[in-house]
Give the backbone structure.
Amino acid sequence: MKRFVLLVLKMGIGIALIAILLDLCYTQVYLHDAKRNKVAMVYHSKPTRYDVVILGSSRANNHFVAPMFEKKGLKTFNYGMSGGHLFEASLMLKVMLERGYTLKNVVLEADLSLANEQQSELVAAKFLPYLHDSKTIATHFATQPNFWAWYYLPFYRYIAFEPQIGMREVYATSTQKQTNVLDNLGYYPLGKKPNANMKNNLTNLKPLHNRYYQEIKQICKTHNIHLITLMTPMCTNVVGIDYFDKVKQLYPEIYNYENAVEGDQYFSSCGHLNDAGARRFTARIIKDFFNK
């Protein structure tokens, strides 16, 4: 029995040491990368000054043509992330300031994402390799139910989020495999899909007094950043379109551009403009907010 206990103990120690070693190796790969995604780009960048920074979900990533802002003489980058929620938008803003960014204007897409306060596993995972290296990131994640395991159990976060930050992504990062997420100053254009779904149902969505939107507002106020919060276009055939009116009632400061681009020929899907639609929309935003 004693030999069995010792064997189990040795195996446990061996597994723990392997987990610690793997955690250190994976983390070091991410700590030396700056090209795979927008989180890594910000985390490894030098202090940067921007006239316009765009934050939000795919409805920011696909709707704001950053090069069009640049043509107006505004240094701009689109940090919208497909699948992201306001949890990640708030954290991205915090990391930018931690890294010494100077921001004049933040354009925030906040419409459908106001209906939840959850993290997006797809996007939130991209911050986790830096959990022990950044107090800002650790503090932001501290409210999440699994924070203790992510923070204190070596290698656990890489197992839990294996598709996002596991072996395959570590290999791609270590070999400096390029992606297109940073092209076009972060704007990702969509094409016209012949069989795209041009229907949507928003009846089950209800805007919340969203804590992460409140965080973003407070951060911008504290750092003297001009915050422009927008609702972006949807296609014509939407059930529950009064959701946008409910957002406006709850947050009068949010500008409603839900119907700023009309015609399904400008949409890739019901909730996402194609490139032609995005350019029409961006031209309208530049005219309304940055024409002077």
Summary: Residues 2-289 form a domain with the Rossmann fold fold (CATH 3.40.50.1110). The chain has one domain: 2-289. Residues 150 and 157 are 5 Å apart (CA to CA). The chain has a mean pLDDT of 92.
